[in-house]
Amino acid sequence: MTELAPTQRPKRPEFRNINAFKDLTTYRMTPAAWVSILHRASGLILFLLLPLVIWMFDNSISSEISFEKFKAAFNVGMLGLPGALWKIAALALIWGYLHHFIAGMRHLWMDADHSAVTKSFGRSSALFTLLLSIALTLVLGAKLFGLY
């Protein structure tokens, strides 16, 4: 095999450091990237709000008195915080669970069926995940805030 002269070698790609202020503002993330980032964020929300989940579960099943205290936290408020703030925390928990579950099912589907891992499937399943988690959160949020 003959070796190319230094002037005939193909040019190698140049890698440079990115400028966070200039380059990151122009970067356009794909829907799959958003789902991936939000999957991690929803897992963090679920972890951080775990004490709230434990408190809600405990007060909802312990006794009738604790259940009334549980309902009052969302209607009147608790610990100096208004009830609407507790409802927003519950709504964040609802979104976190729904998004994490749906995105997890998406990942399991792609792991189980490797022929489904294409660019078009990644985009369509990411958009489906985003839209479904937001739509279900809006429906359950409307119920939480008493709209129906």
Detailed description of the structure:
- The chain is mostly helical.
- It has one domain (31-144): Fumarate reductase/succinate dehydrogenase, transmembrane subunit (3 helical TM bundles of succinate and fumarate reductases, Up-down Bundle).
- It has 5 helices and 2 strands.
- The protein has helices spanning 31-48, 50-61, 64-75, 83-112, 119-144, and strands at residues 77-78, 81-82.
- Helix 1 packs across helix 4, helix 1 packs across helix 5 and helix 4 (83-112) runs antiparallel to helix 5 (119-144).
Task: Give a short synopsis of this structure.
The chain is mostly helical and 148 residues long. The protein has helices at residues 31-48, 50-61, 64-75, 83-112, 119-144, and strands at 77-78, 81-82. Strands 1-2 form a two-stranded antiparallel ribbon.
Question: What amount of the residues lies in strands?
Answer: under 5%
What structural category characterises the helix and strand content? mainly alpha
Please give the oligomerization state of what you see.
Answer: single chain
Strand segment tally: 2
> What is the fourth-level CATH superfamily?
Fumarate reductase/succinate dehydrogenase, transmembrane subunit
The CATH class turns out to be Mainly Alpha
Termini gap: 77 Å
What's the story with the biggest beta sheet? 2 strands, antiparallel
Shape from CA axes? elongated
CATH topology: 3 helical TM bundles of succinate and fumarate reductases
Mean pLDDT: 86
Number of helical stretches of at least 4 residues? 5
Task: Summarize the helix and strand pattern as letters.
Answer: HHHEEHH
